[in-house]
Amino acid sequence: MPELKTDSLFINMGPQHPSTHGVLRLGLTIEGERVVNVFPDVGFLHRGIEKLAESRTYIQTIPLTDRLDYVAGMSNNLAYVLAVEQLLDVEVPRRAEFIRVIAVEMSRLASHLVWLGSFANDLGAMTPLLYCFREREDILDALEILCGARMTFNYIRFGGVARDATPAFVEKTRKFLSTFDKRVDEYEELLTENAIFVNRTKGVGLLTREEAISYAVSGPVLRGSGVKWDLRRDAPYSVYPEMDFVIPTGETGDVFDRYAVRVMEMRQAARIIRQALDGLPEGDFTAKMPRVLKPRKGEAYSRIEAPKGELGFYVMSDGTASPYRVKIRAPSFINLAALPAMSKGALVADMVAVLGSMDIVLGEVDR
Amino acid sequence: MTPLSQYLALGAVVFVIGLFGVLTRRNAIGILISIEIMLGAVNLNLVAFSRFVETSTLNGQVFSVFVMTVAAGEAAVGLALILALYKSIKAVFADKFNILRW
Amino acid sequence: MNWSELLSAPLAFKMLAAAAVVFAIGAVALKNVFHCALSLAAMFFALSGVFVLLDADFLAVVQILVYVGAIVVLMIFAIVLTERITSASVRQTNYLVIPGVLLCIALLAGLVSVIRASSWPSLESGPQQDTIKIIGRQLLSTHVEAFEVASVLLLAALVGAVFLGKEITRK
Amino acid sequence: MTTAVFLIPLLPFLGFALTIFFGRRMPGNVGAAPAIATASISSVLSFATLFYVISGRAVDVSYPWFATGDYLVSIGVTADPLGALMLVVVSVVGLLVEIYSVGYMHGDTRFSRYFAYISLFVFSMYGLVLANSFFLLFIFWELVGICSYLLIGFWFEKKSAADAGKKAFITNRVGDFGFLIGVLMLASAAGTFQFKEVFHAAGSGQFTPAFLTVATIFLFGGAIGKSAQFPLHVWLPDAMEGPTPISALIHAATMVAAGVYMVARCFPLFSASPEASLVVATIGGITAIMAATIACTQFDIKRVLAYSTLSQLGYMMLGLGCGGYVAGMFHLMTHAFFKALLFLAAGSVIHAIHEQDIRQMGGLSKYMKVTSLTFLAACLAIAGVPPFSGFWSKDEILVAVRQSGNTTLYVLAVAGAALTAFYMFRLYFIVFAGGEKKKAHESPAVMSVPLAVLGVLAVCAGWVGLPWMKTNIVSFLTGSQAHGAVGAAVQAVHGATAQLQAHAGAAAQGVAGAVGEGAHAAHHGPDYAVMATSLLVVGAGILLAYATYMKGWVSREAFSKRLPLLYKLLYNKYYVDEIYQALIIGPLVKLTRGLSGFDLAVIDGAVNGTASVTVILSRAKRWFDLYVIDGLVNGVAWLTQLFGRVGRRVQSGYVQQYALMILIGFGAILIVKFLR
Amino acid sequence: MCGGRRDAVAGRDAGGVRLGRRGERTTESNMGLIESLKFIWLFLPNLMPREFYELGVMAVAFLAVVIFITLMVLFMVWFERKVVGHMQVRRGPLHTGGFHGWAQSIADTLKLFLKEDIVPRGVDRPVYILAPLIVFMSTVVAYIVIPFSKSLVARDINMGVLFVFAVSSVTTIGIFMAGWGSNNKYSLLGAMRVAAQIVSYEVPLLLSVLGVFMLAQTLSLSGIVEAQKHVWYVFLQPVGFVIYVIAGIGEVNRLPFDIPEAESELVAGFHTEYSGLRFAFFFLSEYANMFVMSSMATVLFLGGWHGPVLPGFVWFLLKAFSFMFLMVWVRATYPRLRVDQMMAFCWKILLPLAFLNLLVTGLVMAAV
Fold it and tell me: What radius of gyration, in Å, describes the C-alpha atoms of chain D?
């Protein structure tokens, strides 16, 4: 029946729609069930974080970054802190670097789990969502032990981290990791080996290698298209060069590849955390920092491999206590630009799969 | 007991209503609907006759099975035609389909 | 036919007949084609009730299955593809209404007079029959040629409809 | 059992359907799988049917199919001894040929199509064998013909193959026309198509003798076409353009035997009409001797075998015509095995050296052990050397001919036997003995295994007809069986069941001798005189071949040198094709040419003459036209236009308005009718 | 004669639960209350015109069916929530009513009943209002012929199976009405999907059941159950059963075939605009439909009320709920198919398979 098209129909998917995961509006032109045109309309969640930062002190800006990609707050903290640290010329203690890596990778796991669950839910499988949240619960519990918060951490600070990693945290994390790999196997059993899931995702939402590069997408979306590009390896920061991990890539750049890349990344993240826990050195968890921070005049740009892709912070300092200008390169926002390219000729149901596979967070898209 | 003549009368009334629809509806789908009404009336007559005349063979019922078959085929092809026409002239009104006139 | 007879007919027949006529009129006279299709479905329901009265329970069920379950759905499909809910305001009848009405009334009068003039057999009290069995036998014995031809016809209609439908997409 | 019998033809049909629809998607040799699988199951079922029939029971069911007028046409199968025997022949040869074809056709672009056709053929052949009415028989008869056409012209890119297909088809049509007439005559007279009832009618003297004779001769016309008997034999040698397995299956073992089978099936009719029988015997005899003489002079290996087939078919007809019902069928069976073997072996040779001309062959036995051995066995069988199968069946025929008392035919038959031995061994010696001309290699197992199986059959199949046994094929076919004994005999020959192998192993000879003592009263015992005669002439034939082609004692060209005219006549196949060309095709072409000439000269002349007259007349009329008629015409046109201008309003293009008009018209008619 | 005719008028003996109006099939107990009720039952027709009596009987029967369905659906909703919850490492409803939240569905229903009745502007009002009723009615009517036990069946007509499929095909129209009447693009898309889906999946569904008819030689549901006294048809018709399960799930629009209301694509499909009581009707009929499918599976393949020890209807409900459990299990496991994949699956796999099953059944029956 989808072939029996007559007129094209324009429908709004969002800003209130179950599978836009927030307030994204997609204008779809459809003929029967086939999508002939799609344009994403963003900005419904604009909170002016960049502008707010200009009237806050440097340290007051850290909690704001938690609200960017709210399922992986640690990454946002780290990216911002790294940028400011460039202006401050501060030496971060080794223990703090390790804790940062653990926290960021835990955040990555949490983010990917949320994504996996909601992606499966978009495709109609309800059960993985609850399974994933069960795992994420453990992660959030561990992070709560670490910093007292479950989502808005405000944990990574200039020169180190807010509090030391207690043995309780280490133990909790190890306990979580001991079961995690088996759980990932379980998801793969539920999804990767499911014919319906594979049919829904294989060959859908193709983004070729060239397109991916020309749209400047990053993160799993880029790697799903077969580009082996990961800032943890290609522009190393923190103590990642000491870690041993593999960068998974896809082949065709379809939804399934993006899914597979993220699942493999989850295993790698667990591996990194294990290495970091094993090699966690003794020592200070933060450098000595002055009460009032006044970085030198100048500008700095830092970028890290956030769960969604390349997260960059451009900070310009005029020597006062608050930044002159903050600009965020949000991976979700840039990845979203590739949506029309991916959803050419898709069905409405494919749209959902494609959108889900991009893993956008509107807090980050609209800032 | 309801006599045969009343069934026939009901059939006649419904048939004529359908005929009226065929003559006056502008919408091609409406015409098809009216044709189905007429076929339904025909079926009614067939079934009534099969009940009252020659009850053992049920030939009337068998015939109305065939009528339904034809009706189904007619509806499928007719609607496909209407959709094809709609695609080309963007209307389903029978008085727009007059490119065959002088 | 005797009009007073009609009043003496069982209530069920009266109700079903009235419903059939009302819905038939609805199906040809309503402005909104979608409503017409629904009215058509209702009329078929009433007719299948009449079939039950006539001991044709198999046909009653098949009528619902074929007409309501398939044909009306098809029509609604076509309506949905070609109409908007707002297009009900468009004029739905052509200029033939008055001659049409006259002609139909004349025809109805003719038919009714013929029906009244003829003498019809009264009801034979045949035993309750297993209609499915008989119809099945008939279809596969006496009418087997027609049955086969009907199946070919259906196939042809199917292929034709698919072809026409494909034509739409080709552009 | 009925289901099984129905399944026998239906399974190959399933194979056909599968292959024709999905064959192209099947890679490599898989395309043959459905055909072979279904054929194997059918074979097993065929054997089951045979044993079922041997045990004294029979399958004969009919279901009403449709009725046209007074005729109730039914669809049904019958498996009686005759049919069961034929079933086994068809299934064994068919299966072996299919297996063989896997090797022979390997790599052909239409590999699966080939197997689809074969399956269709096997289906039709089974149907033909199992048919229990003339109607079904005719249907399958024609289906078989179609298959033959398709398979002869299988390599239709080759013009000669395509032509051969057409020739076969058209020639067959001539015979089938007669067959159809015969069938319709019988059916209309008997009021039914069923064999049983028609035979019953014939037996009860319902037909006049003259009618019966004419009808059966028409029937026999079909057999002439299908079995390539004398006047219509020309297609069979040409049919050798098809793939060799096809030649083996269709044009040697089974399809051409259909004619023989049909005559045997209708034996009650033929036996009721002595004149018809004589026609059958004569045609058979002529074919036998004619083909045998031609075969002595041919050089194409397949053509030699084709003529040999013709000759043997003639033999069968001869046997049947002389009342040797059993003899004919017996020979049909043994012939099917050894002739299939000969063709397949020939195919193996052709496959090996890609050459059909025997002058290019020689000494192949060195390279192709299996092929040459099996070929030799088949040669011995066909030549009629005891104890090979051909001996027994040919002996039966000779006995039947002799008992019929027609000396001419008997002499023909004996001469044919001698010639058969001669040309077969000529072929063998030239191809397999002597100096080698070309190097060759043995064919793959998939081809040589069927050869070996058929070789065994060629040797042994005749033993079911040992005249010393009380219960042999004779009693089986004539329907007077002693259950256990026949089962034992047949099964001993086939060496099938262990239970019976004890008996068989003890001494087939002993058993045979023991039962032979009380030989069945209904049949003759061994006729030693005939045996001796046939042995003698066969020996002579083989010796002559040995002398000529092996040792060179007699010059190979001796015959062509001494009797050049006769040789030329034989070499050109009695000029039958040329005679047809001259007598039928030529005159027809001339007639059409003449007609076309007549058309051109007389009719066109008349037309043209009329035209010139018309021109003159029309000039005269022009004046009248211009001034008188035009005035009228313009007036009419003006009127028409006037009406048109008014009338076109009616043609509005609105369907519903038309419907209204129709209704008004309908009402008007009704009113007029009622007012009258 | 007259009596026979009149039976036809109001749908034969038109009783609710078969209490045996004429007494000939009464196998129930002989308690005084029932006896007296029976007396009244038998006496009633004398008090009023025949037609009113018939109508009254119909109304009572209908009411009984509706109440039964409501209770059944309430239980089914709770059942599904519990099962899915436990499959998803949750517990499902826990508190309402005390024991494992048994009253949760009742509370939800009450909430739905008490909600404001919203008819959005721009809808095709009569169609919009009628749609949920038609959907509900068409499912309810099917219950009339389902034999819960040998004697517990409202009306045992001799073509029960056809009847069930015929009336459930009417659901399509109701859904179409909802989709069209809502004047909402998502609803319309959902309705079109639903129509395509139901019409398509009805074909293999009916074909899969044909094998059962061939074996049972009857269309009567009771007759089919009787024919399974010794061996269930699921063992004789395994392929048919599998097709039935798949097509049945497709027919009732449940995961993985819940494309018409795929919430991640079409928000809620055809009932996007409905709320409160009207939504409750859709909800009710979805579950009622599931129960019809389960019951039909029980009747056609699982031997109906046959079973040792326990009374017939208990067996029936046990089997039906096992089938329900299967549906819930499937729902908890699989993602949703895409619309084209679903149609392709129906036409390219299920349909040929169903034909094949039919053919094989016929061949085997002919051979035996």
Answer: 32
Q: What is the CATH number for B26? A: 1.10.287.3510
Query: Which partners does chain C have (≥3 C-beta pairs < 8 Å)?
Result: A, B, D, E
Report CB contact under 8 Å: A3, C82. no
| Structural domain total, chain C | 2
Provide the 3-class DSSP secondary structure of residue C93: strand
Nearest to B22 among D653, D654, D656 (CB): D656
Q: Quote the minimal CA–CA distance from E27 to chain C in Å.
A: 25
Q: Measure the N-to-C terminal CA separation of chain C; round to a whole number of Å.
A: 57
CA D12, distance to chain mean position in Å, is: 18
Specify the pairing of strand A8-13 against strand D71-79.
unpaired
How far apart (Å, rounded) are the C-alpha atoms in residues D119 and D9? 10
Tokens of C144: 């087997």
- What tokens were used for A86? 């460039």
The topology (CATH level 3) of A45-366 is Cytochrome-c3 Hydrogenase; chain B (1.10.645)
Work out the number of other CB atoms within 10 angstroms of the CB of residue E117: 9
> Does this model's pTM top 0.80?
no
- What total number of domains does chain B contain? 1
Q: Do C7 and C73 fall into the same domain?
A: yes
How far A184 CA sits from the closest chain E CA (Å)? Answer: 15
Asked whether residue B80 is assigned to any structural domain, the reply reads yes
- Omega of the bond leading into D387 within 30 degrees of 0 (cis): yes
What ranges do the domains of chain A cover? 45-366
User: Which of E187, E253, E265 to substitute to test the interface with A, most A CBs within 10 Å?
Assistant: E265
Choose, out of C15, C33, C38, the residue to mutate when testing the contact with E (most E CBs < 10 Å): C38
DSSP state of D434: S
Give residue C8's domain range. Answer: 1-88
How far, in Å, CA of E173 to CA of E277, rounded?
20
Residue of A nearest to B83 (CA): A6
For chain B, the chains sharing at least 3 beta-carbon pairs closer than 8 angstroms are A, C, D
Residue C99 is assigned to a structural domain of this protein:
no
Contact E340 A120 (CB under 8 A): no
Structural domain contains residue B101: no
CA quadruple D382, D384, D386, D391: dihedral sign: positive
Query: Do both C72 and C141 map to the same domain?
Result: no
**% pLDDT > 70, chain D:** 90
Is C171's Cβ below 8 Å from some Cβ in A? no
Q: Which two tokens stand for residue A39?
A: 């344009």
Structure token pair of residue D467: 């005249």
The domain containing residue B67 runs over which residues? 4-96
The three-state secondary structure class of D436 is: coil
Cβ within 8 Å of residue E221, ≥6 positions away: E145, E146, E147, E153, E156, E160, E161, E164, E299, E304
Compute the distance between CA of residue D194 and CA of residue A241 in angstroms, rounded to an integer: 94
Contact C68 E163 (CB under 8 A): no
Neighbours of E39 (CB within 10 A): 10
ipTM for this prediction: 0.60
Domain annotation covers residue B56: yes
10 Å CB burial of residue E55 (0-12, 13-18, 19+) is: middle
Q: Give the C-alpha distances (Å, rounded to integers) separating D582 from D225, D570, D587.
A: 20, 18, 7
Distances (CA, A) of A169 to A76, A138, A239: 21, 11, 20
Indicate if C142 and C67 belong to the same structural domain. Answer: no
Per-residue pLDDT of chain C (171 residues; tens, 9 = 90+): 344 454 455 777 888 888 899 999 888 888 888 888 889 989 998 888 888 888 788 888 888 888 888 888 888 888 887 776 555 566 777 777 787 888 888 888 888 888 888 777 776 655 556 778 888 888 888 888 888 888 898 888 888 888 877 754 444
CB A257 within 8 A of CB A192: no
